[in-house]
Amino acid sequence: xxxxxxxxxxxxxxxxxxxxxxxxxxxxxxxxxxxxxxxxxxxxxxxxxxxxxxxxxxxxxxxxxxxxxxxxxxxxxxxxxxxxxxxxxxxxxxxxxxxxxxxxxxxxxxxxxxxxxxxxxxxxxxxxxxxxxxxxxxxxxxxxxxxxxxxxxxxxxxxxxxxxxx
Length: 166
Prior knowledge:
Strand order of the largest sheet: 1-2-3-4-5-6-7-8
Radius of gyration: 21 Å
Number of helices: 3
Structural class: alpha+beta
Low-confidence stretches: 23-28
Order of helices and strands: HHEEEEEEEHE
Mean pLDDT: 75
Strand content: 25-35%
């Protein structure tokens, strides 16, 4: 078998497609709970507290509050959905994800059974007309899964982005 001539249009297309597929298949790195940028920006070491939705999906709601043993999601129409979970979101140092197994209200309305949460980005904004900078915004990514097997296979139902409320 001979490889396509690189000088031909088909050969160039072939090599471009192979390079593109290689880039898609290469591993991407994301932020961890013990990431230096995350901790240096005074972002929390766990998910407890208020988080404001940056997503526009219906499942995100407008605000998420993570309390010990419960997640409350406030929606634009005034509804509040409470999810009880069994795993505690203690400090997540040396972990990539915080996993919460939903034990209550998961079957109502097709809500997910498992949540996985990880740091997403830290954004620094410069204050307009001043030399200072606003405190950094800490963003998390919340993945929703239907089962533990889906977590193992990394088949999430959907995901949303939230920022830490000040």
